[in-house]
């Protein structure tokens, strides 16, 4: 499926976008050729804005079974390594789920991570307020006040959170994380604040699949908003009415 | 009032007393050792993981907290419902409630990933969280039950005993509702989606608390050489049987309502039929040992102290089994992110999660029992909380037999 | 018996505490300052208020997403890490550890934060 000329063009553009550093502006070509100004010249001093809601669109028809580019990019970016304990004790901020529809046998592959809900249950149940939602919709854990009770892990419908089971030493300076606290996908908040895209999105584009699209759901001119307005997409466990910021196409 | 004539007396410190204290102290030390191991290495040395996020410490801690609320039954029956026969036993009941709560809470706090940050749990609150609410319910429990105990044993405060008793009664019902709601509010976990969990926890707390009270009373009676009169024993045993039957009834209703919803058939089938260990713990531990056996022992004609004690131990085992099924069983069943699809991933999506508790987390949990026991033993030695005599004449002078 | 034990304990404690009072107290920390020059505030201010500055910044960054402002922990580490070990920890001549050991205050930051420089693996990250 990645052999169509359009896909090739997208891949090229994706790679170009990835190579362009922060602050250079992001040129995206949506059907109909439109220039979208993407976070021009951000230094990070502005802070999170309530006008923005960051979100992601995952096109499962482009996501390849067995491809783990997003997972390894996340691991590199956030310095997530397998722990010394049992596999079940290692952190997984993003994982690939292989689905098979029971009735039809149709197979789907997709990445699953924190869905950055508008109404996050983890934030509701957190006793200290360590789980919180930023003004721009990114759901984070403030490890300074996380006491490691794991109630949020019990509450999350997406199994998006991990508990750090042992002392860590190899952290990325921009991504502090440590023993005894709960953590999950930050939507690469340290990159987003500087106008960059999450590492997984960048890696997916680099690999040529372009299954992940990151952008502002509140901006009707953003590529992600236009795609959502024009194609059928869905939220996982929409019945819970948590309004996740991550949407899926083709499920 | 008959009970004003009751004399309270510390229990004497003889050989048996110190042996029991030493045994409980040893378990307490093992629990402390387990805690420092977990604090140093992290939860990597436990059987818990990202699938089974709550384990043995939570099973035991929640049992103790639920039982603490129930241990107040005897005091409540005396102060709130005016049954004078229980009045001399009310201080012991309040003491046991405080001790069990202290044991349970300590385990819960020491299992935290950052137990060194307890001050944060006491200074940062998110009032939407049932956990934050529980912080107030639990600390309030100590204050109110402590005050209640004071009004009982300080003669000048006696006139406030009923007021304090009513406050404690309402408070502990709220508290157990809060504890049951910890699970009831987890929207995504199929095993917990029921408003019945809070009332179920309340009725179960009656049984667990009364059973532990009877065990404590019998131990105190043996250590102090004060035999218990059969009148109070008979009443307590019948009360206990009612609670056990009520608990069994609500467990049945709980599973029947779950079975009413087709989407819950999977998890119900898992717990009731093919969940392996979980199913075994449910049927053998919770239902047979924790329900049927004590009912038979308590309701069969004739009454011996040994039979009552066996029933109480069975209820405690059944209570731990019930917490295990609720906490571990509820997590073992995987989250269904994509209904209608079979899922698999590196993060165990779509798989039933296994739990093998390690020695450290079990010792940490048992340490909670030890804290409660040591508190009760020392308090009875140094404070006048147990009547000098526990016979029929002291407890119930108007009883005809 | 108990009294004798108490006496013994008092004497033992006194002997153990002796070295601290024998000289001029605990020796002052000998910190290696890698980049002499001006910090974000005078040393007297930094010494007394660095925890407040960092905490204020931490809440700004964590909750409001404001980055790159002056009192960032990463900036501290970047400037103060020892050239030998590349870290602010590791020995009592190292910046953070030396002083915190001297005043006996537990240093909690580095259970999560990276105390070393040169740990940036990801492509998109600039310190």
Question: In summary, what is this structure?
Answer:
By secondary structure, chain B is an all-alpha fold. Helix content of chain B is 68%, strand content 1%.
The residue-averaged pLDDT of chain B reads 92
Shape of chain A: globular
Mean pLDDT across every amino acid position of chain A: 86
Query: Mind telling me which CATH architecture of chain B this is?
Result: Up-down Bundle
Q: Name the quaternary structure.
A: heterotrimer
Q: Spans of chain B of 5+ residues with little confidence (pLDDT < 50)?
A: none
Main sheet record of chain B: none
CATH topology of chain B: Formate dehydrogenase/DMSO reductase fold
Give the terminus-to-terminus CA distance of chain A: 17 Å
The radius of gyration over CA of chain B amounts to 21 Å
CATH topological fold name of chain A: Alpha-Beta Plaits
At the fourth level of CATH, the homologous superfamily of chain B is Formate dehydrogenase/DMSO reductase domain
Query: What share of the residues of chain B lie within helices?
Result: 55-70%
The overall number of domains of chain B is 1
| Poorly predicted runs of chain A | 1-41
Write down the CATH class of chain B.
Mainly Alpha
CA gyration radius of chain A, whole angstroms? 18 Å
Number of helices of chain A: 7
How would you characterize this protein structure?
The complex is a heterotrimer of chains A (251), B (401) and C (127). With 251 residues, chain A is α+β, with helices and mostly antiparallel strands. Chain A contains 7 helices and 10 strands. Chain A has helices at residues 5-19, 69-78, 121-125, 151-155, 189-192, 199-206, 223-230; strands at 54-59, 94-101, 107-113, 131-133, 139-141, 162-163, 182-183, 212-216, 233-234, 246-249. In chain A, the strands form 4 sheets. Chain A has a 4-stranded mixed β-sheet with strand order 8-1-10-9. In chain A, a hairpin with a 5-residue loop joins strand 2 and strand 3. Chain A starts with a helix and ends with a strand. Chain B has 401 residues and is an all-alpha fold. Chain B has helices at 15-41, 56-71, 73-79, 90-110, 118-123, 130-153, 161-184, 197-224, 230-260, 265-274, 277-299, 305-332, 359-382, 392-395; one strand spanning 341-345. In chain B, 53% of the residues are buried. Chain C has a domain at 25-111. The longest helix of chain C has 22 residues, at 43-64.
